[in-house]
Amino acid sequence: MTLSATPRTRLRRKRERQADDRALLHAVLDEALVCHLGIVDAHGAPLVLPTMHARVDDVVYVHGSTGAASLATEREVCLTVTLLDGLVLARSVFSHSANYRSAVVRGRARRVSDPEEHLRALWAVVEHLTPGQWNHARRPDPRETAATAVLALDLCEASVKVRQGPPGDPEEVPAGDRRWAGVVPIGTVLGTPETCPALPDDVAVPEHVRAWADRTRVAR
Length: 220
Known about the structure:
The chain has 220 residues and is of the alpha+beta class. Helix content is 23%, strand content 32%. The protein is built from five helices and eleven strands; from the N terminus they run E-H-E-E-E-E-H-E-E-E-H-H-E-E-E-H. It has helices at 22-31, 66-72, 115-129, 142-146, 207-219, and strands at 18-19, 35-40, 46-51, 53-56, 59-65, 76-89, 97-108, 110-111, 148-154, 157-163, 182-185. Strand 4 and strand 5 form a beta hairpin. The radius of gyration is 21 Å and the shape is globular. The two termini are 29 Å apart. The relative contact order is 0.18.
């Protein structure tokens, strides 16, 4: 369950923030709702795409358009996620920072072509973002399935970087210094679900949607 750093994933600065726990890698990927996929476009220019993802065991599935998938298939890509946990306000501007958990995954992207794996990947992405929605909404039809690409990226080469705790001002607090320092926590909280105006007035918010939104508020 450990992460073995490679020359591409070993931190060069702040090495004490590198974690080697694979379970932490899984947790960061599972909590993040958005990832960024770095690829090279048809003209050789670097391109970073925000998109949705889901982890199944040691594979990350990335949802995308067929055009983006064509650029990334069987090419080296870089997938990143960041969870911002707090703003760290120090007594000196130089020592300001942020508390965060981030993950970087490097590897060769594989386009999912097997129909069963493709459907499992779409299920994983939907359930990762909105638990319980796969059994509530209409399933994709053949045309929609063909228009939706999925990339798979193994978690063989990955790194996790974490910063937690109070400010790291190097000097002691001088007598009489009243400047405040500390951490302003940040978290993702879902708001109250808003029903689509096209629906009849008597269509209630499903219990799984209401419970999912409530859990995030309780957790904070």
